[in-house]
Write a structure and sequence with these properties.
Number of helices: 8
Shape: globular
Strand content: under 5%
Number of strands: 0
Largest sheet: none
Distance between the termini: 31 Å
Structural class: mainly alpha
Helix content: over 70%
C-alpha cells in the first residue's frame, strides 16, 4: 500500500471521528502521530520505507512550519504589493471592490501554496540528502509552481470522471 495514501486516509478518518463523534477540535499533529502509529501497527517495516519517512516528515513540516512562513515572509508577491492591495480595497471598495478582493484572494492562494511547498521541501531535504546523496534546489521552486496547479487539475479530473459516468466513451477509444 501507499504510505502517503495510508497517512492521508488515517488523518482524514481521525478528523471526521474527532469532529463528528467526539465533538473535539481536530489537531493535525495528534492525527499525524496516530496515523503513524496505525500504519506502523499494520506494517512495522514501514518505518524503514523512504516513502513513509518522506510522507510523514513533509506533512509534519507543513503542519508545523507553513503558517510561520506564510505569516512572516513576502513569498511570491512582495509584502508591499499586499499592503497596496489591502489599502486599495479599503479606498475603492465601492468602485473596484470585486477586483481588489479577487487580487487579495489570488495573492493569498499563491502565498499559501508557496509556504506549504517550501515547508515540505525544507523538512524533506535532509532525508533526500541522506537517502540519495543529492538535493535539487529547483525542488522548492518546482513544488511551489506545481502546488497551486493541483487543486484545479484534481477538480478537472473529478469533472471528467463524472462526465464519463454520464456519457461513456467506450466506442471512442476502441
Amino acid at each position: 500500500f501507499s504510505h502517503s495514501l495510508g497517512r492521508a486516509v488515517a488523518m482524514t478518518s481521525l478528523r471526521s471521528f474527532a469532529s463528528q463523534f467526539c465533538k473535539r477540535r481536530y489537531l493535525p499533529l495528534v492525527a499525524l502521530f496516530w496515523a503513524a502509529v496505525v500504519l506502523l501497527l499494520v506494517d512495522r517495516e514501514s518505518l524503514e520505507s523512504i516513502s513513509f519517512q518522506l510522507s510523514f516528515v513533509a506533512t509534519f513540516g507543513i503542519v508545523i512550519f507553513s503558517s510561520y512562513i506564510n505569516q512572516n515572509s513576502g513569498l511570491f508577491l512582495a509584502e508591499a504589493s499586499s499592503i497596496t492591495a489591502t489599502e486599495s480595497v479599503s479606498k475603492t471598495s465601492s468602485q473596484h471592490g470585486f477586483l481588489s478582493h479577487s487580487f487579495l484572494q489570488i495573492h493569498g492562494y499563491f502565498k499559501d501554496s508557496m509556504s506549504v511547498g517550501l515547508a515540505a521541501w525544507l523538512f524533506t531535504t535532509p532525508l533526500v540528502l541522506y537517502h540519495f546523496g543529492t538535493v535539487s534546489l529547483l525542488g522548492a521552486v518546482a513544488t511551489a509552481v506545481v502546488g497551486w496547479l493541483l487543486p484545479p487539475l484534481i477538480l478537472t479530473g473529478y469533472g471528467a470522471l463524472l462526465t464519463s459516468l454520464v456519457f461513456p466513451i467506450d466506442g471512442l477509444l476502441s
